[in-house]
Write a structure and sequence with these properties.
2 domains; single chain; 2 strands; 20% strand; alpha+beta; two-stranded antiparallel sheet
Length: 96
């Protein structure tokens, strides 16, 4: 977790028991590092990554749809001008 090569972390938890006398949960952490990518590269990269599991199961690759790409670019332009702040609660919920 202290490795400076990692720039991002994802955390997931699953509650296995909500018994207050014997609570149990599973926690997993995924570490990654940011790789710079331009906005122009995103549609092709997303299509490529989403196609990999399909190809592994003998299905055809996805193809990029220009209208959906244009809609996504328009949404990004709106969101870029109105950033949101997202916070996550890190304290466990009380079973009471």
């Amino acid at each position: 977790m202290l490795n400076p090569q990692y720039t991002h972390v994802g955390v997931g938890t699953v509650v296995e028991s909500s018994d207050p006398k014997n609570p149990a949960f599973t926690l997993t952490m995924e570490f990654a590092r940011e790789r710079p990518i331009t906005l122009d590269e995103v549609p092709a990269r997303v299509t490529e990554l989403l196609s990999l599991p399909r190809l592994q199961h003998g299905l055809g690759a996805l193809r990029q749809d220009d209208q959906l790409t244009d809609a996504a670019r328009a949404a990004i332009a709106v969101l870029k001008d109105r950033p949101t702040r997202r916070t996550t609660r890190c304290r466990p919920r009380s079973p009471l």
